[in-house]
Amino acid sequence: VGMAGSGARVVPVPVLEDNYSYILIDDESGLAACVDPAEPEKVIQAAESLGVALSLVLTTHKHWDHAGGNTQMAQLIPGIDIVGGEIDEVEACTMKVSDDQELRLGETTITCLLTPGHTVGHISFFCQASACAHVFTGDVLFVGGCGKFFEGTAQEMYPSLYEKLGVLPVETQVWPGHEYTVSNYKFALQVEPENEELKDAAQWASDQRSRNEFTVPSTIGKELQTNVFLRCSCAAVKAFCQVPEDATVTDTLGMLRARKDGKR
Predict the structure, then answer these.
(1) Does 122 participate in catalysis according to the annotation?
(2) Is 178 a catalytic residue?
(3) Cβ distance 202 to 180 under 8 Å?
(4) Contacts by 185-193 with C-beta closer than 8 Å and gap 24+?
(5) Among residues 27, 36, 66, 122, which one is catalytic?
(6) Of 11, 74, 182, 196, which one is least surrounded by beta carbons within 10 A?
(7) For this structure, is 63 an active site residue?
């Protein structure tokens, strides 16, 4: 999962039932951050085994399974900076961030992207160091899926998916907040049964999970090919949603999410 000296690397830490926390390591400085440490002791233990000390918490959004460990993180690592979106009122936040704000972790630049739709103040973190690019997408973009529109509509989710995340460099590694890939692909194959890349991805994900391995990271390029929620301009997706061929991407996205919600 990334090579020493390659800029920045990411180590997934599975927490709770199907959540992912992550440790982001800046190779140049050895500094490390963690993303959504919902089980603080597990995340700190993982950092210790990697030989890094955590100096920063990045919180994607306010829901308990992402932000619920922040208070304990602050107790276990006194003085740690806890970042959260200014709109989302994240637990134990010490540093409120807004859209396009940049943070540094050694040589790694972390750009905060406001990506509402799941919560109004959800932040995705786009991290760049030398040739590496990573994005932590919380509960907005999953491998093969997207988050439920708890505090928003397709109008809010559309720019998050299509104008913020979908336009990142195609090689950007995607690290979402949950291991939902197999069920996402099961639905997607009903939407786009002829999509060969999707069929291959679904088979790969099933094989990974049968070995109890992760399906992260994906890449933005792979998601553009295989994630039906990023493919709402495609004729096959519109046909599945029973919207007219000239329907907007936003309208199609809303119908697609409603169909997925009906199947869960």
Answers:
(1) no
(2) yes
(3) no
(4) 185/144, 185/226, 187/145, 187/228, 187/260, 187/263, 188/144, 188/145, 188/226, 188/227, 188/228, 190/240, 191/228, 191/236, 191/237, 191/240, 191/256, 191/259, 192/228, 192/231, 192/234, 192/236, 192/237, 192/240
(5) 66
(6) 196
(7) yes
Q: Would you tell me the crossing angle of helices 181-191 and 249-263 to the nearest 10 degrees?
A: 120
Distances (CA, A) of 5 to 37, 105, 131, 147: 25, 15, 11, 34
- Active-site residue (options: 26, 36, 178, 251): 178
Cα separation of 176 and 11, whole Å? 12
118 is catalytic: yes
> Is 66 annotated in the active site?
yes
Report, in angstroms and rounded to the nearest whole number, the Rg of the chain calculated over CA atoms: 18
pLDDT in tens, the chain (264 residues): 444 556 999 999 999 999 999 999 999 999 999 999 999 999 999 999 999 999 999 999 999 999 999 999 999 999 999 999 999 999 999 999 999 999 999 999 999 999 999 999 999 999 999 889 999 999 999 999 999 999 999 999 999 999 999 999 999 999 999 999 999 999 999 999 999 999 999 999 999 999 999 999 999 999 999 999 999 999 999 999 999 999 999 999 999 999 999 874
- Set 36, 88, 118, 122: catalytic member: 118
Indicate which residue of 27, 61, 88, 122 is catalytic: 61
pTM score, whole prediction: 0.97
